[in-house]
Write a structure and sequence with these properties.
The chain has 2 domains: 10-149 and 221-262, Vaccinia Virus protein VP39 (Rossmann fold), CATH 3.40.50.150; 153-215. Helix content is 28%, strand content 34%. The chain has 8 helices and 11 strands. It has helices spanning 10-20, 26-37, 53-58, 70-81, 85-88, 123-136, 153-156, 223-232, and strands at residues 42-45, 63-67, 91-95, 107-112, 137-148, 164-171, 177-188, 193-203, 209-219, 235-241, 255-262. The mean pLDDT is 96.
């Protein structure tokens, strides 16, 4: 997989934890619970700096984290090195492409937290990812992942091409102040994805100012499209939720969360 920006831009790994650690970690608890129930090793695709991976290891689970970005993995390794040895030894980090990887191991659970599956634009990429996961799972192994529940106005309304605040400005431990905005840079209705820009305004303690742009594609999915993809690649959907509290999927649900079991 390429084109998500994480693998090319070092500043993303520098700011990532400050941005996302401040959020309510409902998804972290959700994925950790499935790892605890798995009865075997977990592999997490798109593990990044370890936002979900490290709490999973702290919960006593053996976990392999795969990510394409050397920058994100470096941060994850730095954080892992600060853990007690008996926790750190439960973590294995691998740099690799989620559409084409081979760790040489089998897992009871595969997870793709926080929507990296939406960076896979083509059906060929999506099937390649699912087929790799299938090959790495034990019999009856599970796959758990989330994608956005598609917001139709965001697919067509030009107002979303204007910059919008994502969260209030935050002050980092080193004194930098960061404000983040987002915008849709382009609609691609024919290929079912949007080009998104996450824009970081950084003010340094010495007065220096930066405007940093993370451009990334976001494929949007519909429920039965994903179910069909999973079926084609040897999975059966066992549970389906609209949010991380395991609430039923509704028209206004923010997420589509799939829990699928390997069938072949």
């Amino acid at each position: 997989m390429s084109g998500s920006g994480y693998e090319d831009l070092e500043f993303i790994s520098d700011l990532y934890d400050a941005i996302y650690d401040s959020r309510t970690p409902r998804d972290v608890r959700f994925f950790v619970d499935y790892a605890k129930q798995a009865g075997g090793k977990t592999i997490e695709l798109g593990c990044g700096t370890g936002r979900v991976l490290i709490p999973t290891a702290l919960a006593g689970c053996e976990i392999t984290g795969l990510d394409l970005s050397a920058y994100m993995l470096k941060k994850c390794r730095e954080k892992s090195a600060k853990l007690p040895p008996e926790i750190a030894e439960k973590i294995n980090l691998v740099q690799g492409d989620m559409t084409n990887f081979n760790t040489g191991e089998k897992y009871a659970l595969a997870t793709i937290p926080f929507r990296p599956f939406q960076h896979l634009i083509t059906v060929e990429q999506q099937k390649a990812c699912l087929n790799c996961i299938h090959a790495h799972l034990l019999a009856k192994g599970k796959l758990v992942f989330d994608v956005h529940h598609t917001n139709l106005p965001r697919l067509i309304d030009p107002q979303f091409m204007m910059e919008m605040d994502v969260e209030p400005p935050m002050t980092l431990p080193d004194g930098r102040v960061v404000k983040r905005t987002s915008r849709t840079a382009a609609f691609h209705h024919d290929e079912q994805y949007n080009e998104i820009e996450l824009i970081y305004y950084v003010q340094h303690p010495d007065g220096k100012k930066e405007r940093l742009v993370h451009a990334l594609p976001m494929r949007y999915f519909y429920r039965y499209e994903v179910e069909h993809l999973l079926s084609l690649c040897g999975f059966k959907v066992m549970e389906f939720y609209g949010d991380f509290d395991k609430s039923a999927f509704r028209e206004d649900s923010p997420e589509m969360i799939f829990v699928a079991e390997k069938t072949g």
